[in-house]
Write a structure and sequence with these properties.
With 382 residues, the protein is α/β, with parallel strands linked by helices. The protein is globular, with a radius of gyration of 20 Å. InterPro entries: 4Fe4S_Fe-S-bd, Cys_rich_dom, HdrC_iron-sulfur_subunit, Helical_ferredxn.
Length: 382
């Protein structure tokens, strides 16, 4: 379920917004579906507990420094929004509260701050050099300018390069005329929006925006669920706040694949394997894209089996919202729960549509299951 986005993701912090939503909470505890709560079991990390603490903070009865970590033990997956009986846009609440903590000096947490400092120097939360961002693409000789640009994102550029490579190969095979910014691409800013560090996101927005305009771009395509959510939902708000014209179309690669299949422009070979699909939170609950990846997988004539929790009820992989970087043990426990759920289907492969989900689930599986991105499968079966 997509968040209602009452507050501006570009940086407007509204005490009235937090007060309103905190008072609406019925304290019903349906939100115990929270993946972090399922691992820790503390009331303070459940959405209900955080809303209770938020009320106390807003009334001046609780010092934020005492509980700030509990507000960061949240993957911002949105599972709580799906079951919320009073329809609170909870992801917006957590992100706005985090941004307010940062503004008032109670946050960011140490590793989140370190990642921002790295990104200020390299254009990415990873430690690799900025000039190495596009090295994976050198063998493809991508164009400098085109109306469509491939936005690889940080994880596919530095950690799961096979996703970026398969995407470029797929685009080339099907005749998509595209360009790629290489070292001129910087982080979309998602990790910093989610952890309340919004100022750096403005700089990344300006850099990416200017590159897209310089290259004559009209359409942005990305393989990353987090990048897709940020560029399609958060960037237009930032553009409006800064007075920039936003006239770009934004797609995830799975939407492009799905469209080509529906139009009969591509056909996929059979892949007779037993597979299951993991819904990335940023693609599913945040953006409502559930059926496109499933229809693509069914076009492969696979033995497709759903996990017990799927679509809007899917279990988060555990990596998002800054949890993997700051609280890796919690993230890994959630990831292992998802792997166990996948194993119960009898599937050999877990397929997803996000490099960060792939990276985290691979590590969580410890080699017990193979994790693939949908673009890897489609490119090989084209």
């Amino acid at each position: 379920m997509a968040s209602k986005a009452y507050c501006n993701s570009g940086g407007v912090l509204l005490k009235e917004f937090l007060e309103k939503e905190a008072l609406i909470c019925a304290q019903c505890h349906y939100c115990r579906v929270c993946p972090v709560y399922s691992v820790i079991g503390w009331e303070s990390v459940s959405p209900r507990g955080r809303m209770f603490m938020l009320r106390s903070i807003l009334k001046g009865k609780l010092e934020p420094s005492i509980v700030v970590e509990d507000f960061y033990k949240c993957t911002t997956c949105g599972a709580c929004e799906v079951v919320c009986q009073t329809s609170i846009p909870l992801v917006d609440v957590w992100e706005t509260a985090r941004a307010d903590f940062v503004r008032k000096g109670f946050a960011p947490l140490n590793i989140h701050k370190m990642l921002r400092e790295i990104a200020e120097k390299t254009g990415s939360p990873y430690k690799e050099k900025r000039e190495d961002r596009g090295k994976w693409a050198e063998k493809y000789k991508t164009k400098e300018k085109a109306e469509i640009i491939y936005f690889a994102g940080c994880t596919a550029s530095y950690r799961t390069k096979e996703l970026a490579e398969n995407t470029v190969e797929f685009f080339t095979k099907v005749g998509i005329d595209f360009c790629y910014a290489g070292a001129d691409e910087v982080c979309c800013g998602s990790p910093f929006l989610r952890t309340g560090q919004r100022e750096i996101v403005y700089e990344f927005f300006k850099k990416n925006y200017s590159e897209w305009k310089r290259r004559g771009v009209k359409t942005i395509v990305t393989t990353c669920a987090g990048c897709y959510r940020t560029i399609s939902r958060d960037y237009p708000k930032i553009a409006e706040e800064l007075g920039y014209e936003w006239d770009f179309k934004v797609f995830h690669t799975v939407q492009i694949i799905h469209k080509l299949l529906k139009e009969g422009k591509i056909k996929l070979k059979e892949w007779r394997e037993k597979i299951t699909y993991h819904d990335p939170c940023h693609l599913g609950r945040h953006m409502g894209i559930y059926e496109e990846p499933r229809e693509v997988l069914k076009a492969l004539n696979t033995d497709f089996v759903e996990m017990e929790r799927n679509r809007e009820n899917a279990l988060c992989c555990g990596a998002g919202g800054g949890v993997r970087s700051q609280f890796k043990e919690i993230a890994m426990e959630i990831g292992k729960k998802r792997i166990e759920e996948a194993k119960r289907t009898g599937a050999k492969y877990i397929i997803s549509c996000c490099p960060f989900c792939k990276l985290h689930l691979e590590q969580s599986s410890e080699g017990s299951m193979e994790v693939l991105d949908i673009i890897e499968v489609v490119n090989k079966k084209l």
